[in-house]
């Protein structure tokens, strides 16, 4: 998948190379220049002695993610693991656990981060960004759709004024979406190899 730009958004979350589902997980580790992200919504916290989460991917397949880091509880908390949020695993390789379940064994906390949204919300935001790009709205104010030059410092969404940006943060929902949009825009500019 070719990378997009700040004004051209074309990220495809259904691309099985960049965002493989459970049926398309690479068997070998990534080659130099290759990368992928495993996406899964946390549906249940099964933690006992270490953080363990039951996940659901974009095609509704279930798997387990278990933290085996030096400080597993702290690392899971720092990532923001919560039921209903999307856990992202960079270059995840399938692991088969002794209890017969399969999923991902997290040994490096830097390979994991959480987006504060459900899988449906993530897909909806991605679709909205694609539509805004196709219709030229990426250069318009996110609140009033006037021509815009101001940007959100985190996610680069445009605004015509500080007043519109403040209103969108308080009443428009940007507070809930900002971190997710920022990550989607990073992925949009990534050449997945």
Report on the architecture of this protein.
- It holds the Pfam family zf-MYND.
- One of its GO terms (molecular function) is zinc ion binding.
- This is MYND-type domain-containing protein.
- This protein is an alpha+beta fold.
- 25% of the residues lie in helices and 21% in strands.
- The strands form two sheets. Strands 5-6-3-2-1-4-7 form a seven-stranded mixed beta sheet. A two-stranded antiparallel ribbon has the order 8-9.
- β2 and β3 form a beta hairpin.
- The model has no long low-confidence stretch (mean pLDDT 92).
Shape, principal axes of CA atoms: globular
Number of helices: 4
Query: Strand order across the biggest sheet?
Result: 5-6-3-2-1-4-7
Extract low-pLDDT stretches.
none
The number of E-state strands comes to: 9
| Protein structure class | alpha+beta
Q: For the CA atoms, what is the radius of gyration?
A: 18 Å
Report the biggest beta sheet as strand number plus sense, adding barrel if it closes.
7 strands, mixed
Note the run of SSEs as H and E: EEEHEEEEHEEHH
Could you tell me the strand content as a percent range? 15-25%
CA-CA gap between termini: 8 Å
Helix content: 10-25%
Could you tell me the mean pLDDT? 92
């Amino acid at each position: 998948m070719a990378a997009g730009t700040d004004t051209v958004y074309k990220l495809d979350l259904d691309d099985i190379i960049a965002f493989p589902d459970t049926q398309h997980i690479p068997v070998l580790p990534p080659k130099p220049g290759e990368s992928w992200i495993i996406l899964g919504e946390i549906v249940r916290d099964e933690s006992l002695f270490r953080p363990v989460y039951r996940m659901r991917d974009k095609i509704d397949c279930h798997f387990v993610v278990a933290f085996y880091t030096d400080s597993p509880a702290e690392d899971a908390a720092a990532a923001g693991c919560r039921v209903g949020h999307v856990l992202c695993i960079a270059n995840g390789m399938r692991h088969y656990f002794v209890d017969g379940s399969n999923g991902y064994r997290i040994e490096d906390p830097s390979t994991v981060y959480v987006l504060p949204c459900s899988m449906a919300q993530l897909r909806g935001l991605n679709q909205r960004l694609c539509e805004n790009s196709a219709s030229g709205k990426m250069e318009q104010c996110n609140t009033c759709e006037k021509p815009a030059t101001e940007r959100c410092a985190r996610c680069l969404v445009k605004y015509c004024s500080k007043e519109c940006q403040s209103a969108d943060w308080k009443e428009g929902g940007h507070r809930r979406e900002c971190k997710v949009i920022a990550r989607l825009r990073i992925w949009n500019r990534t050449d997945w190899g």
